[in-house]
Amino acid sequence: MIIVCDQCKTRFRLEDSAVNREIFKARCAKCHHIFVVDRRPPDETPLVLQEEQILPDANYKILTICNQKGGVAKTSTCINLGAALTLHGKRVLLVDFDVQANLSDQLGVSGKRSFYDVLSMESTSELSKVILRVEPNLFCLPSNNKMALLPKNCLSKKGFERILGEHLRRVASFFDYVLIDTPPSLDFFTINALMASDFAIITTQAEYLALKGVGHVENIIDVLRQKTGHQLDYKILINMYEPENTASQAVCRALKRRYPAHIFATEVTRDVKVQESQILRSSVIRYDPKASASRQYLALADEILRFQT
Ligand SMILES: Nc1ncnc2c1ncn2[C@@H]1O[C@H](COP(=O)(O)OP(=O)(O)OP(=O)(O)O)[C@@H](O)[C@H]1O
Ligand SMILES: [Mg+2]
What we know:
The protein contains 12 helices and 12 strands. The protein is an alpha/beta fold. Residues 74-75, 98, 102, 181 line the site of magnesium ion (MG).
């Protein structure tokens, strides 16, 4: 496991077998600060916030991870980028805004309640109880199958495209980053997520058909800009990249040529450790900090922190 000094933010690798307690104190070898390490499994502790803990002018960022194409690592990026940001000392909320509830499943949280329930909640403390803590600095607003009713209930309402944003802003300032996972479509869910966000990450595989998927998201972002004035910037993340595969290399070059200002320098390669970590309901960073995907998600978090601060 990786532990992080909460004062100087230095990261240390600690063999799981070295300590047999779930909560223990550690002394940072760099700054000598003593800090508490909590490695209890997800306990689904609800977050309970009071109105006074919500600071209206706090500096938080909301990012959507999207692509209308399925299986391009949207959910994996959401979980692993979130985990990487927590290692930078950030407090992160992951929003599962997909009826498939893959993100909730992979974090091992039950979707007894979801954003669907939030709609009828008046007070901030009631709303915040739907948010579950999965790691000390990582939280999840889960999904469940009631979310399928959202479009039917909301589409006829004026301003339906802002519903997620309006409710998220009630709690967002408690976090540094809010990452929204979306379904493989550009419908009610993704449009709401984009409207709630400061920034979009379009994940794509380096495959021929993926070029089209990226273009569709880009068009929707343009339409939202024109119709609503919502100025949303975006970057493309190439995921499951296969550096040895010539077709993969060609598509990667094409993406970089077509979107020179809109592509992350970091690429996430195909790595079986990501799949293994999902079986264990963990981020790959927690499962194997030395895996190439772990290093790449940490580099992605670095890139995001550099241009978002
Ligand atoms: N870097 C990686 N290396 C290998 N496999 C990966 C990697 N990232 C994701 N995967 C695998 O690819 C599959 C799809 O990933 P994921 O569920 O994150 O995609 P998605 O875009 O969220 O899918 P959906 O469109 O269904 O929501 C999963 O089986 C996941 O384990
Ligand atoms: Mg998904």
